[in-house]
Amino acid sequence: MDLLPVLVVHGGAGTVPRERSEQSVSGVRSAARAGYAILRGGGSSMDAVVEAVAHMEDNPSYNAGCGSVLNVKGEIEMDAIVMDGKALGSGAVSAVRNVANPVRLARLVMDKVVFYPPCGQCFAQEMGISEVPPESLVTEYSRMRWKKNLEPGANPVESQMGKMGTVGAVAVDREGNVACATSTGGMLNKMEGRVGDTPCIGSGGYADNQVGAVSTTGHGEVIMKVTLARLILFHMEQGDTKEASDMGLAYMKSRVDGLGGVVTVGPQGNWAARFSSLQMAWAAAQKDSLHYGLYAGEHFTQSIDDPH
Fold first, then answer.
1. Is 166 in the active site?
2. What is the pLDDT of residues 207-238, one digit of tens each?
3. Which PANTHER family does this chain map to (predicted)?
4. Is position 194 annotated in a ligand binding site?
């Protein structure tokens, strides 16, 4: 049975406040449709994951692009990565500001640069990417959470698994090429210049046509300790996507007490959306069906063309 093409997205692992859960689920479904439209039209997996992630960067429901969390100074600094499974090409940016879609900038790094540019902002200008005013990326919700975590007695570590999470996508196209993309605003109230797991190959994402593609979400420091994306692909060499995803997440929990989530896809079209946190908004598009959920064990299905 032909399972290709496939696209799977996540909107971040954590705990989504009840009043924002509907927006989170609606957003991943919309992003999955946007990315799958490219695949259905014969487009590449790379084009599809970038489109899906950019769609979520433009949605203030997530911690990426517009809606990113603020650092300790009340400013936005964003990270992103893309990786192409065909030639193992990758591109990443870290701590970029005033860019609406860091994932598109990461794609340009992969396509245009033979070494990492010393200044992501300068590279963006070189590539003709327009700067956006800093305030256009800051939401009232982000500012409220930033202020709340500056209050005496606040626990910023506890707050990290809140509503706002890293976004990501994986896909396999009709040619069997896999790709991944991940984008984030990082940790709430983080130190200025802090770079987490997202732009690190093997942690924030990894793609290899011979095995599959992974995009991760969760606490960056613990994800980096176990290089979660690459660890899951190692397990995928031995088993299926769901089992491999669960094994990687279980190891991260037992070894470094870390929670998180992943979306994975294999070159034959098998996919998974798995998480050890309370929630992770996810959606998958395959064979003109849209699958989605928020809680563990939750799995709804509808037609990809159903707008509701």
1. yes
2. 999 999 999 999 888 999 999 999 999 999 99
3. ISOASPARTYL PEPTIDASE_L-ASPARAGINASE, L-ASPARAGINASE
4. yes
